[in-house]
Amino acid sequence: MMPTPTRLIPAALGGAAVFGAGMVGGGLVEAHAFVTHHVDVPVLAPGAAPIRVLHISDIHLMSRQGDKMAFLRRLADEEPDLVISTGDHISEGRAIIPLIESLTPFKGLPGAFVFGSNDYEAPRWRNPAAYLWRSTAGDTEHARVALPTGHLRERLLGLGWADLNDATARVQAAGRTIDLRGTGDPHIRFDHYEQVAGPPAPDAELTIGVTHAPYRRVLDAMVDDGLPLVLAGHTHGGQVCLPNGRAIITNCDIDPERARGLHRWEHDGNEGWLHVSNGMGSSPFAPYRLFCRPSATLLRLVPAE
């Protein structure tokens, strides 16, 4: 005997509720399943020895997140030659000291950072499900709580790292001269690339571009200047992805296929490598990830073929 339609509807709704609860639970668990990716990037001259660059991003640290702090400390085991952070370090002011304590194993290593919007203002509440369909680009409503950005900058500088917000720096890593240039966060239009623009210096072995949000205007300008590698974060790799790992939303104007990982970026006949970090965290008001584990990446720069 076939069940009646009135019996089928509650069963279907119950099944959907169980499935939804399972997805939410899985997303909350995955948000703590930290992983380190290892990627080779062919940007060095033939015969050059590799350079190990640790790319971290979007930590969004809160002072209670001990597992995230432990993951940060363990990253020192990767023995990088250079550390680059592409912003959104904190979600509250009292996370600054725990952040720096977690990064202390890198003190003395060459490093550099830029800021994201969440390094200036605490995240504000929004419908957690809105992340699936709406970008925050162009939002005019500001967060109510300003973060102690100056204190964060001072502490990061205390690690010996360079501030690349609309600035440049030259570092020695693995015995090589590397130039770095960065911008303020394009997502909130703090970027002024014209202040650092220009072709790479001929006496540097490599020039790397650094920005928080991978907006096309910044990526285009950097590859047009001849930068072979650009590092960015912000997208969280999509944060909530399809089962194949494809991002649903990028929260900027980059295409979803390049919301995370290593890709070629082309503009007007110029091209370079772009690496977008998955990031390690998320807003405290959307503390989930799905098919997109929180991560850091050890980039091994190797000779181009």
TrEMBL record:
Kindly list the GO CC terms recorded for this protein. Answer: membrane
Q: Where is the Calcineurin-like phosphoesterase domain?
A: 51-237
Gene Ontology terms: biological process: lipid A biosynthetic process
Give the coiled coil ranges: none
Is the keyword Hydrolase assigned to this protein?
yes
Any idea of its EC number? 3.-.-.-
Q: Does the keyword Hydrolase apply?
A: yes
GO MF annotations, alphabetized: UDP-2,3-diacylglucosamine hydrolase activity
Keyword annotations for this protein, in alphabetical order, are:
Hydrolase
Q: What SUPFAM superfamilies does this protein map onto?
A: Metallo-dependent phosphatases
Q: Which InterPro entries match?
A: Calcineurin-like_PHP, Metallo-depent_PP-like, Metallophosphoesterase_sf
One Pfam family, please name it: Metallophos
The record's section on PANTHER family has: CONSERVED PROTEIN, TRANSMEMBRANE PROTEIN WITH METALLOPHOSPHOESTERASE DOMAIN-RELATED
Q: What is this protein called?
A: Calcineurin-like phosphoesterase domain, ApaH type
Q: What is the lineage of its organism?
A: Bacteria, Bacillati, Actinomycetota, Actinomycetes, Propionibacteriales
